[in-house]
Amino acid sequence: MPTFTALPTDIVQAYRAGAPDAFGNPPERHISNGSGNPCRHCLRDVPKGAEMLVLAHKPFDGEHPYAEVGPIFLCADACTRGGGADLPPILTTSPDYLLKGYGADDRIVYGTGAITPTPDIADRIASIFNDPRIAYIHVRSARNNCYQARIDRTP
Q1: Which domain of life is it from (predicted)?
Q2: Distance between CA atoms of 36 and 103, rounded to whole angstroms?
Q3: What is the mean predicted confidence (pLDDT) over 120-140?
Q4: Cα four-point dihedral sign 155, 88, 110, 147
Q5: For residues 68 and 38, what is the distance between their CA atoms, to the nearest angstrom?
Q6: Which of 14, 75, 19 lies closest to 43, judged by CA?
Q7: Cross-strand partners of 73
Q8: CA 147 → CA 42, 69, 116, 120, 155, distances in Å?
Q9: Which of 112, 7, 120 is nearest to 60 (CA)?
Q10: 80: Cβ–Cβ under 8 A, 6 or more apart, which residues?
């Protein structure tokens, strides 16, 4: 069974303390409208009326052609890190998502990327992980390409 992995707490705490984002800018502070603001740490929508951070994040180490950068939301206040075997709440609010497999070298494994209807996510994950070249999967917005979460193989 795969494991959904949220952003590490130490990285999120640094952003909350004003650490620069992937472009060297401080995170922006906004108020959530309660819908469509998925926190990449608790893997839930930022509650309506709550302060949130908006910033550019690169979910890769180093710089290379496949190290995509994009906007993400985070709860501005402390939240419990999400993740685990169950589909996170932030992956139930859209009709579909983009899933892509990556190798241990952090490069996309071509042929694994697909817009996947939400009810088919578990089957698509299993299909991607059938390829032994896959080290992990990224879930992104099918409409805006925003990074949502990482999926790791369960040891």
Answers
A1: Bacteria
A2: 30
A3: 97
A4: negative
A5: 18
A6: 75
A7: 39, 54
A8: 14, 8, 15, 19, 24
A9: 7
A10: 42
Compute the chain's Rg from CA coordinates: 15
pLDDT in tens, 60-100: 988 888 899 999 999 999 999 999 999 999 999 999 999 99
Strand order in the sheet with 51-57: 28-31, 51-57, 70-75
Query: Smallest Cα–Cα separation from 94: which of 51, 40, 142?
Result: 142
The number of helices, as runs of H, and strands, as runs of E, in the chain is 2, 9
Q: Which helix (H) or strand (E) holds 8?
A: none
- The phi and psi torsions of 91 (rounded to 5 degrees) equal -105, 25
Query: Mean pLDDT, the chain, as a whole number?
Result: 95
